[in-house]
Amino acid sequence: MRILLPVQLNPISRRKDKSVKLSLETRELSPTEIMTLMAIEGEEMWCSLATTEQELPEAPEEAPELETKTQAQRLRGVLFILYKKATENGSFVGTFDNYYRDRMEKILESLKAKIEE
User: Fold this and answer.
1) Interatomic CA distance for residues 82 and 88, integer angstroms
2) Most CB atoms within 10 A, among 12, 76, 88, 109?
3) pTM for the full model?
4) What angle is formed at CA 62 by the lines to CA 66 and CA 71, rounded to 5 degrees?
5) What are residue 46's phi and psi, to 5 degrees?
6) pLDDT 10s per residue in the chain (117 long)?
7) How far apart are alpha carbons 115 and 113 in whole angstroms?
8) Three-state DSSP class for 113?
9) What is the DSSP letter of 83?
10) CB 7 within 8 A of CB 25
């Protein structure tokens, strides 16, 4: 699907993870245009910006991938931060691998207990 709208790029902000957040503003849109945009909200897609239509590059054939972290990677990252805090305050002594296994086992046991309820 290709949608071509005149937009204004306002503000650009940097994120902690070095990604960039873009905010686009359009002219007043028709109900059909709004519904089309709402249908693709949250989807990964290519974005092409140009000041004239002649400058617009063609979109690549392959699907875009934002390379966001999986839920498991995010959980591991949070556990690593908790591990660092636990070692700093002395409540845990050992390697991250041991901490990770211990915490994951506790999470799994907690979830299993909810299944048995």
Assistant:
1) 10
2) 76
3) 0.45
4) 30
5) -85, 150
6) 777 778 888 889 998 888 888 888 888 888 988 998 899 888 888 877 787 777 777 766 666 565 667 788 889 999 999 999 999 999 999 999 999 999 999 999 999 999 987
7) 5
8) helix
9) H
10) yes
- Ramachandran category for residue 24: left, alpha or beta (phi over 0 → left; psi -120 to 50 → alpha): beta
Residue type, 97: D
What distance in Å separates the CA atoms of residue 16 and residue 84, rounded to the nearest whole number?
19
- Computed on alpha carbons and rounded to an integer, the radius of gyration of the chain in Å comes to 23
Encoded tokens for 8: 């204004």
Q: What angle do CA 113, 100, 97 make, to 5 degrees?
A: 145
Distances (CA, A) of 4 to 57, 63, 108, 109: 12, 18, 48, 51
Task: Pull the structure tokens for residue 43.
Answer: 């989807």
Exposure b/e, 32-50, CB count within 10 A at least 16 = b: eeeeeeeeeeeeeeeeeee
